[in-house]
Automatic annotation (TrEMBL), chain A:
GO terms for cellular component: membrane. InterPro entries: AAA+_ATPase, ABC_transporter-like_ATP-bd, ABC_transporter-like_CS, ABC_transpr_TagH-like, Bact_Polysacc_Export_ATP-bd, P-loop_NTPase. PANTHER family: TEICHOIC ACIDS EXPORT ATP-BINDING PROTEIN TAGH. It comes from Streptomyces griseicoloratus. One of its GO terms (molecular function) is ATP binding. Residues 44-267 form the ABC transporter domain. The lineage of its organism: Bacteria, Bacillati, Actinomycetota, Actinomycetes, Kitasatosporales. Keywords: ATP-binding, Nucleotide-binding, Transport. Pfam families: ABC_tran. Belongs to the ABC transporter superfamily. This is ABC transporter ATP-binding protein.
UniProtKB/TrEMBL annotation, chain B:
The chain crosses the membrane at residues 74-95, 150-174, 180-202, 214-233, 279-299. The lineage of its organism: Bacteria, Bacillati, Actinomycetota, Actinomycetes, Kitasatosporales. Belongs to the ABC-2 integral membrane protein family. The keyword Transmembrane applies. Pfam families: ABC2_membrane. The keyword Cell division does not apply. Its main location: membrane. This is Transport permease protein. One of its GO terms (biological process) is lipopolysaccharide transport. It is found in: Cell inner membrane; Cell membrane. GO terms for molecular function: ABC-type transporter activity.
């Protein structure tokens, strides 16, 4: 887990990105929407008439290459919309790449389960549903169930776990979501701004849990706008700006440059 | 490798020899391409491993559906009953389509319920990917789990309808018979057929979200051609004036096959003579064709779901 047990000098790569480009296509922006002929065009002549028919291509990540090794915790930083989350999703295999390749050791997983949960169901059923959605077995969920509920603190103020999630306050719901997501152990763990939920005491518990997860996971990627939590958890940082990899190096070095960049009043 | 290599930005870790060749490095350590489509047997295995999720997701959707209503889960039975009542009022009372059909109400209600099963499965399948992009983009699982799960939800829904149907059958004096057991294989085959078509529509709908707008019209047209409210057997009989090939051609329609099988199983006045020839073979054939074909068609685009 900690470092290479292979031949000396050779570190074990867990994630390799090789010249990765990611492009989103968005239907119905600009002039295309509203005009029926343009829409028809879009369907009939996919590809050729994309631009004319109002399909916008958003080039979110451009030619990014890096090698992540076992035992590393890597922070991803960059201003809003710089492609951090997009890159993370591609590493998780959830977004196809336009060009290049991403190689991974096993199946990296995003720390996130929100989309599988249903507000109309009780917290209890959501714990089961979320666990199954993440690929846990029934037995594993049963084993961890109490742990998840205790960690979320949902039942601290009464028996809320048997109420539908729509009755929860937003903070309660966020805490339960994080607790479910963090219940699974991963080989390569991708964390996207998960630490910003809940009250102070829950945040502390969350950070602790992330560190614990890092111990079990081979490699952790953390997207965050908080330079402090990057400093606390990561030993290496990738800095993305406008989809391009601007810097890749030890945390302090990169953060120093990044702070210089963000401190400047108008940057280009 | 389609892509020529780019020199990676200098990493601080002293790179092992030959690290500039990232593809080779990946190969050396046995790393696999992320988000690549698994082989078909592997895909089937992954899907099977997620069977509990498929079941739980279907049940959760079903339960969530009426959880805000005061009557709650009673609506599971009320909805199909009210549906049947409306159709009975329009087609049985106002338009008097029942001419020539014995046990018209059971005939109609069976048709409506069985058709609704196929219709809602296909509708749900069309939106299975395009309507659940959040889920597709957040978690890793074989995407076929979604359309299959939605079809399973419809099957569960149908179970409630079937319970209501039994009440209706008995109320209208249709005696219970051993042939009711035949409903089980008929439903299984129909489920496989529905799942297959849903998988096809899920892929189409993920590329062209507009399909969700178009499908209700296609499905309604299909319904009117499927003898849900009238008897194709009677309409195309010798005294209808239609050429003799019309009946058999209409009866190849998979919806007709599954609806008539269910009527044959449940209603004793709906005799075997009203069934198309080779009906079980057709039911099986449609199920296999749609099921296997749809699954392969869906799997072929597995790695592209979630883009857009």
């Amino acid at each position: 887990m900690a470092d290479n047990t292979k031949q000396a000098g050779e570190r074990v790569p867990t994630v390799i990105a090789d010249g990765v480009d990611i492009v989103y296509r968005v239907n119905g922006t600009g002039a295309g929407r509203g005009s029926a002929t343009a829409a028809l065009n879009r369907i009939l002549r996919r590809g050729r008439a994309e631009k004319a028919a109002g399909v916008r291509r958003v080039h979110a990540v451009r030619n990014v290459s890096f090698v992540a090794h076992r035992g590393e915790a890597i922070g991803l930083i960059g201003t809003n919309g710089s492609g951090k989350s997009t890159l993370l999703k591609a590493v998780a295999g959830l977004l196809p790449v336009e060009r290049g390749r991403i190689y991974t050791d096993g199946q990296p997983s995003l720390l996130g389960v929100n989309a599988a949960l249903m507000n109309d169901l009780t917290g209890e059923r959501n714990v089961h549903l979320g666990g199954l959605a993440m690929g846990m077995s029934r037995a594993q969920i049963k084993e961890r169930y109490q742990e998840i509920v205790d960690f979320s603190g949902i039942n601290d103020k009464g028996d809320f776990i048997t109420l539908p999630m729509r009755t929860y306050s937003s903070g309660m719901a966020a805490r339960l979501r994080f607790s479910i997501a963090a219940a699974k152990d991963h080989d390569v763990l991708l964390v996207d701004e998960a630490l910003a939920t809940g009250d102070r005491s829950f945040q502390k518990r969350s950070e602790e849990r992330i560190r614990e997860l890092r111990k079990h996971a081979g490699t952790v990627f953390l997207v965050s706008h908080s330079n402090k939590s990057i400093r606390d958890t990561c030993d290496r940082v990738l800095w993305l700006e406008r989809g391009e990899l601007r810097m890749d190096g030890p945390t302090e070095e990169v953060l120093k440059e990044y702070e210089k960049f963000t401190a400047a009043p108008t940057r280009r | 490798m389609s892509q020529v290599l780019h020199t990676p930005p200098p990493t601080t870790s002293a790179p092992a020899a030959g690290e500039d060749d990232l593809a080779a490095l990946a190969a050396r350590h046995g790393l696999s391409v992320s988000g690549a489509r698994p082989s078909l047997p592997e895909y089937v295995r992954q899907l099977w491993a997620r069977r509990h999720f498929i079941g739980a997701f279907a049940t959760a959707k079903l339960t969530a559906q009426y959880s805000q209503a005061k009557l709650g889960q009673v609506w599971q039975v009320m909805t199909p009953l009210l549906n049947a009542a409306v159709y009975y009022f329009i087609f049985g009372v106002l338009m008097n389509t029942k001419r020539g059909v014995e046990d018209y109400v059971p005939f109609l209600v069976t048709g409506v319920f069985v058709w609704t099963f196929t219709q809602s499965s296909i509708m749900a399948g069309t939106k299975a990917i395009s309507g659940n992009l959040g889920l597709v983009r957040a978690l890793h699982f074989p995407r076929a789990a979604l359309p299959v799960s939605f079809c399973l939800q419809q099957l569960q829904q149908l179970m409630f309808s079937m319970a209501a149907l039994v009440v209706i059958l008995l109320a209208f004096g249709v005696p219970p018979a051993a042939s009711w057991v035949l409903a089980v294989p008929a439903l299984i085959l129909q489920f496989v057929f529905n799942a297959g078509v849903s998988l096809i529509m899920a892929r189409v709908g993920s590329k062209i979200p507009d399909m969700a707008q178009l499908m209700p019209f296609l499905l309604r047209t299909w319904m009117y051609g499927s003898g849900v409210m009238f008897s194709i057997h009677h309409m195309t009989g010798p005294d209808s004036g239609l050429p003799s090939w019309v009946g058999p051609v209409l009866q190849v329609n998979p919806a007709v096959v599954y609806i008539d099988l269910m009527r044959f199983a449940l209603i004793d006045s709906f005799g075997g003579g009203m069934l198309p020839d080779h009906v079980w073979a057709m039911a099986l054939g449609w199920a296999l064709l749609a099921g296997i074909g749809g699954f392969i068609y869906f799997w072929k685009a597995e790695e592209t779901y979630g883009r857009g």
